[in-house]
Amino acid sequence: YPYTAKDFLSNQGLKTRYYENHTNDNEWFAISDYKLVNSNPVLQNTVTYTVFGDANTVKRLELGLMVRDLTERAQSIKTFCSDVSTLYALSLNQSINEQPLLKIMNNSEFSIKMNELHTVTFTSEPLVSPGFYSKFVIEIV
Q: Is the pTM of the predicted complex or chain greater than 0.85?
């Protein structure tokens, strides 16, 4: 249910605003403000949370990690993994095992078909400036 999913990570500092139709088609979404996960005011490392779907159903949950200050990479990824673990537990009603978290820590992409309904993926791409952008997605297929 999207109105529940949008609040999954509010205790993690990723509070979303309204879940609504932002376009003329049937795609609805809610996005959080950026959560700052490092201390550099210029090269900020941030996490965001987005819920996508239609008026009544969640289709995709996304956590994004933008790392621009590589000196605080490890701490930023640790925070991201905590958010991933919480999202995984609340959305799939089970704890995430260690293997996907190790892959995230090593910035290794993966895609796992959880069951006939859910796929979990992790991708990462370099930024034009120093750093990278990683995305963890739980998708209903």
A: yes
Lowest mean pLDDT of 18-22, 33-37, 80-84, 127-131, name the range: 18-22
Which residue, chain included where needed, has tokens 């008026």? 55
For the segment 97-134, what is each residue's pLDDT rounded down to a tens digit?
999 999 999 999 999 998 889 999 999 999 998 899 99
Strands 58-67 vs 110-113: parallel, antiparallel or unpaired? unpaired
- Both tokens assigned to 5: 């999913």
Q: Please give the structure tokens belonging to residue 141.
A: 């297929």
Q: Contact 25/33 with Cβ under 8 angstroms?
A: no
User: Contact at 8 Å (CB) between 65 and 47?
Assistant: yes
Burial (CB count within 10 angstroms: exposed 0-12, middle 13-18, buried 19+), residue 115: exposed
Structure tokens at 22: 């932002």
Q: Given 3-state DSSP classes, what are the helix, strand and coil percentages for the chain, each rounded to the nearest 5?
A: 25, 35, 40
* Domains of the chain by residue range: 2-140
The token pair at 82 is 């905590």
